[in-house]
Sequence to fold (299 residues):
Amino acid sequence: MPENLFKVNIEEYMLPGQRACQGCGLSLAYRYVLKALRENTIVTFPACCLTVLHGLYPTTSVTIPALNCTLASTAASASGLVAGLNAVNRTDITVVAIAGDGGTFDMGIQALSGAAERGTDFIYVCYDNEGYMNTGTQRSSATPMGALTSTTPVLTKQQPKKDMLRIMEAHDLPYLATTSPAYPIDLYDKFVKAKRIKGARYMQIAVPCPPGWGYAPKDTVRIGRLAVETGIVALFEIEDGKFRFTGRTKTLAEKGNKLPVINYVERQGRFRKMSIEQLRQLQRWVDTRWNEYLKRAEG
Fold:
């Protein structure tokens, strides 16, 4: 398949006319995910923003075969696909499960943990937009402290974000990585690598959401980059237990010029009721995690 200067597959598997919101971070990410995975891929996903993006039967803007499942059963659906393909000796097809943070951190964690513990040969992708965005911007366990949602309309969320990455690492996966659509080459390279590895792989994409987060659609890439620049999102991969920073995060770690989280928070309407103390707690949470990552990268 022809490639450009950055060695990115030039084929398009997500065509114009998809139904996502303007400025949707998922649509940007999904385009590069499919480019990296290429043909011979089957995706399965629950009722979520990705279902909207794919469109209504019998039309779709995506050329890859897809299977819809229930919100809690994404990993179970993928496990069934893997078993079926193995039964007919089709080991050349990559099975990919994709769900949002609600379908991963919350409702789908049981099926995901079971599949990961069994070492099922599939790629699980969580696109993390930090809330149930498809059904009205409700709070999830991925929602950060201090954020407003439709289920925290007066008081902001009081608890910090669940560390799903640490939970998944505890399953001793052969490959785990974080990505962002604001850094598409880093995202593309990690999915190319994940496709070549066998076993259960976990990929977490930090996906900005204009209507859920309260910013202009034109600023999606800017918000995504600020998430990385402030350390809210760290770009890294863990391969066979070995941790390493990648992309922009690697540069920030080397130069020590991470920005304060206020630079990220002040540009989003969902944080408009965040207290000063919550802002301080969020900064401490980011700094503590960042220092832990630095120690691992140095080791």
Summary: The mean pLDDT is 96. DSSP finds twelve helices and eight strands in the chain. Strands lie at 41-45, 66-68, 94-100, 122-128, 175-179, 200-206, 236-239, 242-245.
